[in-house]
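User:
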Amino acid sequence: MCSSYIKLSLLGLVLVVAACGDDGQYEFGFNITGIQFELFDPTEGIHPSTVTLSNPRNPFREFGVSDDTKFAIFGNGGNAGAFYAWATILADIPIGENQFFTAVKLRDIYQSNEVAEEDRETVRQMAIAGFQTVLDCFPESLLFDASGTVPLRFATLAYFEILDIGGVVQGDWVVVEDSLGNPTAVQSTAIDALDRDAECF
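Assistant: Predicted structure:
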């Protein structure tokens, strides 16, 4: 029976893709740690854009990325490879987690200077826009600790990421202390809620 899947090799982080052809099943691989980032579109990796699915440099555009491999790719696939993987996931499943980690890889590409000098500022702005989209479109998304019981809002993480790379947080976001004394980003009003929802979907 024919199937499509992506398997993570423990040696050298090579993805092996099995797919159906007229003559049965075949395999081919590509080394994602060797992928170089090139600016394709300034909306790539920023919801609701799905332009990454037409980017010929994105090796995941045709096969997608499984939940079993996405964090392994994030940690070990190189910044560009991980960006393309998570941008693909975001295009297919637009949620706060996927937007946040896609923006993190844009930030990493910028901070590691893994982009042409003339495109660095654009990539920084893309990272800021990605984090801002977490605030605008996915403000209630949660990240849980290893135990799965202690939640942290992606909005808080995104808020501080914007500041850390020299951006300015847009909207009515403020930082307050939660019941445990931890800083938490919240919206001071809900005035723009309807406009925000219209822009995000």
